[in-house]
Design brief:
289 residues, alpha/beta, Rossmann fold, two-stranded parallel ribbon, 9 helices, 48% helix, globular
């Protein structure tokens, strides 16, 4: 039996990371236009102050580096103190590092995980005590297509998003008895500055041909949309009485992930006999046997 979920009062109170640009800024703007209040957090402060100048005390600008766990806890506390509660939390802060798996240094690999996984983990841990206490809330984890499949040159980005999705699946089960919902949002391409601000690894000559082919594919097949469309979808999501664990945004993304799932099922089915032969219950071995 599922627990009763109090959807919380309206208008809502949001806490959004990475709110100075891209999807985070679009979601914050849409929430404000809907009459909600928003705590907007980001490392770049000017766009946050601009939102506050336009919308007054319905906006709380918070300078924040999500990799700083203590700062995350303080920012969440400031938002709760200012607004009295949190209804929707959007873990949107993220970065994109581009390069083949072999090309990344240890420092670069760790930095990718610090923002995309650990930053989201710190926010999740900081907001959960408040959401549990009020017995309602909706936590949105902004993943990507990279959280559903690994692709050449985005392997470490995918690793960070796979980690986010695995953690979030477990969190959804743990939070549900307290009336707290979790949704993993998987957007396709949107016109944000994620690509222009991305970092790239020092290229190895061995991958020159593959890199050229990838650049050709991106130039010919990229479909990017207005971030406001994603924001509209997010507002529909949080208004639902039965939000999903996962929500894919975009037709291209939808077709890709469904195709990927079908390929996986086909592979598992083809190797089913080998999989099943690898399991046979036996008594617990005795020490030394």
């Amino acid at each position: 039996m599922s627990a009763h979920v109090d959807r919380g009062p309206s208008p809502r109170v949001w806490f959004i990371t990475g709110a100075s640009r891209g999807l985070g800024h679009a979601i914050a703007t849409a929430a404000l236009h809907a009459g909600d209040s928003v705590a907007v957090a980001a490392r770049t402060e000017a766009p946050l102050r601009e939102l506050a100048a336009r919308h007054g005390d319905r906006v709380l600008p918070l300078p924040l580096d999500v990799t700083d766990r203590a700062a995350v806890v303080a920012a969440v506390g400031a938002a709760v103190e200012a607004f009295g509660r949190l209804d929707v939390v959007v873990n949107n802060a993220g970065s994109l590092f581009l390069g083949m798996v072999e090309e990344w240094t240890e420092a670069e690999a760790r930095a990718q995980l610090e923002v995309n996984f650990f930053g989201a983990l710190w926010v999740s841990q900081a907001v959960l005590p408040h959401l549990r206490a009020q017995r309602h809330g909706h936590l949105l984890q902004m993943s990507s297509l990279g959280g559903l499949g690994g692709y050449s040159s985005t392997g470490l980005y995918s690793a960070s998003k796979f980690a986010l999705e695995g953690m979030s699946e477990a969190l959804a089960q743990e939070a549900a008895p307290f009336g707290v919902r979790v949704t993993i949002v998987e957007p396709g391409g949107y016109w944000t500055d994620l690509y222009t601000s991305m970092r790239t690894a020092t290229p190895l000559p061995a991958y020159a041909q593959l890199r050229a082919e990838l650049e050709r594919q991106w130039a010919e097949g990229s479909v990017d949309s207005d971030p406001r469309l994603a924001a509209d979808a997010v507002l529909r999501l949080v208004a639902s009485d039965d939000p999903p664990l996962r929500l894919v945004l975009g037709s291209v993304a939808y077709d890709l992930v469904v195709g990927l799932a079908q390929q996986r099922v086909a592979t598992w089915t083809r190797w089913e006999s080998v999989s099943r032969a690898a399991e046979r219950a036996i008594p617990m071995p005795t020490p030394g046997s």
